[in-house]
Amino acid sequence: MARVGLTAERLTRAGAELADEVGFDQVTASELARRFDVKVASLYSHVKNTHDLRTRIALLALEELADLAADAVAGRAGKDALTAFASVYRDYGRAHPGRAAATRMRLDPETAAAGAGVRHARMTRAILRGYELTEPDQTHAVRLLGSVFHGFTSLETAGGFSHSTPDSEESWTRILDALDALLRNWPSPPTR
Amino acid sequence: MARVGLTAERLTRAGAELADEVGFDQVTASELARRFDVKVASLYSHVKNTHDLRTRIALLALEELADLAADAVAGRAGKDALTAFASVYRDYGRAHPGRAAATRMRLDPETAAAGAGVRHARMTRAILRGYELTEPDQTHAVRLLGSVFHGFTSLETAGGFSHSTPDSEESWTRILDALDALLRNWPSPPTR
DNA sequence: TAGGTTTCCCTAAAGAGTTTAGGCAAATTA
DNA sequence: TAATTTGCCTAAACTCTTTAGGGAAACCTA
């Protein structure tokens, strides 16, 4: 039987494309086998199971995203860096909805720690260097930015902002303006 | 054959509980049938298909959440209202992770429009009455708040903030402080 | 380059979920 | 009480997942 040259990597890449086409939760071993014109069982020599496959796709997406973000941030600082960084997330989410959904997959701690998630956190911190935040406020800010990027892109692709004015593009820029202002003027804890 | 008294509502409620126990994407017609001690096919007189079932769970969760939020916000204003409102989202997400995941499900536009999603948007706007924002800034702020609540709770339940200091509770309060400050001081668009 | 070894994809099969079609008895209505 | 509607059933087709074991292709190695 002719060998097709399956590898975990090729399956992962094809799975990522499939995810962008049909949605991350529709990524199925059967469909993947069909695309490689191969029997389903053959995949199981390369990936442990469907969960393993999805995890690989998630890690691939996180890696790609981290690479893009690193490029975007290089040579920029302050609001410029913030905007560039944020745009990478949003653009990626719109260009690759399936992969983006994959990045939101729950990973078990050690897998997450081994993946590019840490690079993301480090880059977010790097961006905050342009603002004068000290710990623990920096961590709070990192989490805020993560939440906004995560939440906005996920609501946007879910269609939450469509069919209403102003369009989401404008909200995005204005939200970044607001976040920039907030970071330049991060409040100290109020006396409770 | 003894009748169990299945209805779409009972199935939906049981499905919501199942979602909280095993995760929203593990909600299966078969498991539900098992719980009611009924054959799977019997569910299909009450619910169109699995997607329909999930949609109903999502709508139930949105409804519950809107009710809780309405209670929490009543009689409060300003930061007080903001905090109460935000807490409802976060607490709900921690108490009912499956239902919360359901609220993040992509709904087709008319279903979404018919559901409680609009109530959420209206309440968010009501909270912003305590801050002096005019359109279109109010819409941007609504979207920012939605993104943060959505993103934070989803990252938190995905375990994104665990095993690191400070704990997510503290970040949550400090992020609310920050958002309050931001809303009181929403920046006008910079000259670009 | 022939032999052995490893690798890769195959067939086969079992298990679980989804969904439709059609039937019979229980509940409701007249 | 008879007629109708409703609710749960059996049966069956289909899809996807996963494991076990087999044979041929690709790769060493002498």
Automatic annotation (TrEMBL), chains A, B:
PROSITE patterns: HTH_TETR_2. The keyword Transcription regulation applies. Keywords: DNA-binding, Transcription, Transcription regulation. It holds the Pfam family TetR_N. This is Transcriptional regulator. One of its GO terms (molecular function) is DNA binding. It comes from the Bacteria. Residues 5-65 form the HTH tetR-type domain. It comes from Streptomyces lacrimifluminis. Residues 28-47 bind DNA.
